[in-house]
Each structure stands twice: as structure tokens, then as C-alpha cells.
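TL;DR need C-alpha cells for one chain.
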Amino acid sequence: MTFTGSDISVGGLFGFVIVLTLVEMYFSYAHDKKLYTKRDTWNNIYLMTAAVIINLGMKTATFFLLEYCYQFRLFQISNFWIYWLILILAQDFLYWFLHTVGHYVRFFWAMHVTHHSSEHFNLTTGFRSTVFEPLYRVFFYLPLAFMGFTAMDILFAYLVTQIYGNLVHTQYQINFPKWYEYIFVTPSHHRVHHASNVRYLDKNMGMVLILWDRWFGTFQAELPEDKIKYGLTSQPEDMGPVNIIFHEFIALSADVKKAPTFMDKLKYIFNPPGWSHDGSTKIAKIMQQELHEAEAKENQNQKNDNIKDFNEKQRTLSSTG
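>> reply
TL;DR here they are.
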């Protein structure tokens, strides 16, 4: 058996992630940071294994579909460096789009929710995969084949960016230069993404570049006054691995059944999570708008109180002057 340079590179990168995970786990227990729990870690491993099995099952179909579309490529990039630069940038943008769809379309959220279900945040959380994503991910990457990128190169680029995405699942504070934080996803950015705070919902979708979020309005910085709470806005009571995978499908099915009209049934499937036909629940954007309005009102009241206090002091000084 022979190994290619790509095999060795990917194997080395995965090995690096595993070593870092063990190091983080050791320091977490050594310093009693409680970043890990046994049940949560085993759930992460179980869900990663399930995703790997589906990945392997879909690998051949994914490869041949990409190769088939490659025959109809619109152009071919001959320069090696430009080829890989554009491939990485385009693949990362298409992942941002795939990820955004996973948050804004409830059917896809029912699959992606698995990755957000942990109330802990550590390097093994990156392994808590969206189990069924391999079934549809390839359709988001078909434009790359039409752009003249081979199936093998597309899959390799995805693996490399995925490994970077795993590395930002950590609570350890890392001080990056400002230019780096402006361009690339950092652990702080991704902590926001995994938060269940209203302010942080559906933010920071990028895998490698945070620029997509800055440009398309899905960026949110981590704020010290709004401490992150990990997990879902409503955690399932049963945190067993099977229920973690299927609980949102069960909830979606129940909502579709109770919808009074056919159009409402479709809206439950394709509208963002939280949409309801009777307004009993709200989508993240509405809740964030209400939060911002409440904060603006509070700030205005505080400003008015400060002006009132200032005027009172001035009158006091005038009367005693």
C-alpha cells in the first residue's frame, strides 16, 4: 500500500488535532476547569463515528458526482498557486452558505442542530458532527467542479478547512493580532456561534474566514457583558445520542401536523427555526430586534437619568453659589 502526499498531510493534520485535544483535556482536568464531562465526550465520539460511517458510504457517490460535473467545467486555472488560492476561498464561501442554510432553513437545522446540542465547548465539540450532512453537502460544492476543480482537490480542500474549523472549538483565550481576527475565524468568534444567548444566535458561520460574516451581516463579536451560555435555547430532556440526532425531526414533524394549512406546513419546513403559524414562538432575528430595542430604550432612559442628575446638581450649585 502506498500513501500520497495528500494522505500524509491529512493524516498529520488529524494527528495534530487529536494531540491538541488530549492536551486540552489534560489541562482541563489538571486545573479543574470542567471543560469536559465523560458523557458529553462520549456523545461527541459517538456522533463523529456516525458521521464518518455516512461519509464513507457517500464518498464514492460524492467523488463520481463531482468528477461528472467536472467534465462540464467552464474554465481551467493553470497556475498552481492561483488554482489552490481560489479553490480554498471558493470552498470556504460555499461552506459559509451551506452553514447559513443550516441555520435559516428548519429542515436543514433539524440535521445541523446535533452539532449545537452540547452545553460544553471544547475541541471534541468539533467532532460532534452534523451526522446527515454528507447526504447533501456535495450539492453545495458542485459549483467548484464547474469552476474547473477536480473532485480529489475539492475533497482535500474541504478536509483541510474542516481541520481548521475543529481547532477553533476551545474556551482557552488566545490573543491574535487584530488583522488576523478581522480576516480569520478565531476561537472567540466560534464561541459566539455555539452560544444560545439571543444576541449570538445564527452568528459567525465561517469555517476559516470570518470575512463572509462581516460582509453579509452575520458577524457578532464576543462581548464581556453578555457571557456565553452554550447549547440550544431549549435543550432536549433526553441527551442520549440517538435523541440528539432525531429530536428536532420529531419536533418538526409535530409542528407540521398541527399546522392548519398546507402553506403553513411548508413554512414550518423551510422557514427559520422558531417560526410558528400562531406567533407562539419567534425566529432569532425577531428576538434580536426586540433585544436591541429594549437595550436602546434602556440606554435612552439611562441617558435621560444622567441628564436629570446633572441638571439637579447644577441647580443645587446655583442655589448655594
